[in-house]
Every structure is written in structure tokens, then in C-alpha cells.
Design a protein that fits this description.
CATH class of the largest domain: Alpha Beta
Distance between the termini: 21 Å
Number of strands: 16
Order of helices and strands: EHEEEEEEHHHEHEEHEEEHEHEEHH
CATH topology of the largest domain: D-amino Acid Aminotransferase, Chain A, domain 1
Function: Cell wall formation.
Shape: globular
Strand content: 25-35%
GO molecular function: ATP binding; D-alanine-D-alanine ligase activity; metal ion binding
Structural class: alpha+beta
GO cellular component, one term: cytoplasm
Helix content: 25-40%
Strand order of the largest sheet: 6-5-4-3-2-1-7
Pfam families: Dala_Dala_lig_C, Dala_Dala_lig_N
Number of domains: 3
EC number: 6.3.2.4
Radius of gyration: 20 Å
Amino acid sequence: MSKKSVAVVMGGYSEEYVVSLKSGQLIYDSLDRNLYDVYKVVVLRDEWYFLDENNRKFQINKGDFSVTTDNNTSLKFDVCFNIIHGTPGENGILQAYWDAIGQKYTGCDFYQSALTFNKKDTLAVLSKYGIPSAKSVYLRKGEEINPDEIIENLGLPVFVKPNQSGSSLGISKVKEKSELIAATEVAFKEDDEILIESFLDGMEVSVGVVDYKGEAIVLGITEIVPKNEFFDYEAKYEGASEEITPARIDDETRIRVEEIAKRAYNSLGMSGFSRSEYILMDGIPYMLEMNTNPGFSPASILPQQAKIYGISIADLCGNEVQKALNKNK
């Protein structure tokens, strides 16, 4: 049986591309070379290219996502392993393009990716399945903002966040009504739609769920102990938070979190890696957001959870590739 060719597709158009390159490297290193020929592809706003083993760049042909290397050899990939965080790999843009050219890929389909990248719509869908979230106010750029009304409705403090943005960019915690307008301006720099959410005072947990060998499993529940006010960009990527796996919660709470995380995963029709964030208040998990392409660098939460669960990174990644290969075009 000839080996299948796998392109590990990394990069992206947002500031998260730096993390994506590290995630891609881990997947590239981990995939079983007895089963797959593994290649690196980098997708950036200005160029899409293939990197050979000598780190030489060859441009990707966007017509069919192929690459022409030395001596005019054309290379097509059986599967694209999508590990782009943020746009265009986490919001459905790349998936729609791959669907259009008939390219198989790992992870969520176009619709699930687009839906889960939109916090407001995700929480609206999940509320139908009985999954609670914070009270919130949704605003579009250009709408009039009435701080009195918002604070009366949500109380203080509140979180102001872009509706569609990865990696905690543009988020502020607002403790005084006078700070609200400035915080909305920061969030509107990242997106034309923003959410203002009531503050949930409790433990933050991050839950890794994957579909592995035909069922959705919870890899682990990680407790996030921020050194900053909240789990912001710095805390996420520059180590300004302590991550404790498994989280320090009793069995009853753990079982409830696992059940809700699986329900969220299945209700949204997810596939592949996912990491959902919750605040636990009085033992109840309130959903903050769902990530369909969470960080997968060695320092990231998901690989750490897999290690504790007892699934090797090679098996976890191989499982993704096999699922993608079995998908019907």
C-alpha cells in the first residue's frame, strides 16, 4: 500500500500565526512516517508556499492546492492537516475553498468553523441545548451605545470582547462605567461586532474534546489560574498563567463539565480537535467560547491533556488523518 501524502497546513492571517507555526511543527514531527509522507505548507496573507526539507520555498498553486517542485514534479496532497489558528483556517474560509476544489482536510467543516468562530451565534445555538452562558449585550459598529442601560442590565464588572477573534485580542475587563466606551473602541478594532458580557466570578476551565476512534472523548479539564486579571493574550502565550491539569474540582462537578463539554461538541456537529472554555460558578459550567483549532504547540493545553489521558500525539494526529481520508469527497 503506498503511503498517503499529508500536508500540515499552518500559519494564518492573524497574530496567532506564530503559535500556529509551532503547532504545525509538533504535528509534522509526530505523524508516523511509516504510514504517511508528511509535508509542510505555510499559508500567509501575502503568500502560500510549500517548504521542502531544505527549507526552500515553492509557491502553492491555488487552483488545486498543488505544488510544482524541482524537475517539474507536481505534488498533490491526499489530506491537508489544518492547524491554522484564527482566520482563514478556523473560520471556514479555507474549508469552503478546499470543498470547492475537492481537497480532503482534517477538523471541522466550513459551516461548523464559521459558526463557532462567531461567539454570539455559538452561544445562541448552545442555549437551545441547555448550555448556559453569561448574560450579554451584542453591538454592531456604528450603533449607539448606552452605558447606563448596559450596566443596569449586566452589572459591573463586564468583559468587552470582539465577537470574532481568536487569541483574546481586543478584550477588556471594565470595572467602571466611565471605561466602557473606550473598551468598545478597542474591541471594534478587531471586529465590526462586539459582545459585552456580565462578569462570572468563578474558576476558569479549559476542556479538550476530540472525536477519537468514533466517539467524542474529553481529554482533560484544565484549570486556568491567571496571574493577570483574566486569561488574556499574554497569559495564553507568554506564560502569565498557571495551568493545572486535571482541574481541582470534585467528581460531581467534573462529571457535569465532561457531560456539558461533550454535549456542546456534539450539538455543534464538531469534528477534530476542540477546546471549550467555561467558568464554573456554584458547580455550573457557563460556556465562554469554543475553539475548533486550539493551540497545539508542546506548551499548549490540548497536547498536555492528551499526555495525561494517555493518547500519544502520534495517535491523536494519525486518527485525524484517517478520519479525513475516510470522508467522502
